[in-house]
Amino acid sequence: MGTLPDTRLGRTTSFDMSAKQSSKIRVFLRTRPTSNFAQDMIEFIPDSNNINIHAKKNEKRGVVNNQLLDWTFKMDGILHNASQEQVFETVGADVVNRALDGYNATIMCYGQTGAGKTFTMTGATENYQQRGLIPRVISAVYQQIEKRVEQSVSIRISYLEIYNENMFDLLSTLPEAFVGTQAMTIIEDEYGVSIKGLACT
């Protein structure tokens, strides 16, 4: 799917480790139509949460060939030209509640360059409505904490980017923060997997 020309498809995957849906991975497709959107190649079926991909036949292969031209993918939801608010309500809101209930939760965006992963996760600064999942989730966490007066909650934040197989600590933005610091490495111990050297505030 990542090799289709100018389709601007991005997948938002929500990992939900709840008691009811143990290790259930939910996959949502978010699309951002452009002027060159491949309408003849992509077919959405929102009622069944299916997406059909129809490739054009490669005439250079001759008249007789076994080229696969059609694919169907089943999603948990299709967010076609959806607002940031719709994305949060569909993907992020339930993850916040379950995380505060004590379950591990992860939201991950995957897609080709230009698909809108950064916009989905962080949003834009033009106006308040363009906030992405990260600021919305943080806001929702604090709102939920205020309602759960019987709980004692501690919050720690790290911000890591992996680009071209290199890790970047996005909370250590000042040049002096890198002086004398060791490279970040992935470690695994009795508490799970973590990043050694990653800033945590």
UniProtKB/TrEMBL annotation:
It is found in: Cytoplasm, Cytoskeleton. This is Putative kinesin-like protein KIF9. PROSITE patterns: KINESIN_MOTOR_2. ATP binds at residues 111-118. PANTHER family: CENTROMERE PROTEIN E, KINESIN FAMILY MEMBER 5A. Keywords: ATP-binding, Coiled coil, Cytoplasm, Cytoskeleton, Microtubule, Motor protein, Nucleotide-binding, Phosphoprotein. Belongs to the TRAFAC class myosin-kinesin ATPase superfamily. Kinesin family. Residues 24-201 form the Kinesin motor domain. It comes from Stichopus japonicus (Sea cucumber). GO terms for biological process: microtubule-based movement. GO terms for molecular function: ATP binding; microtubule binding; microtubule motor activity. GO terms for cellular component: microtubule.
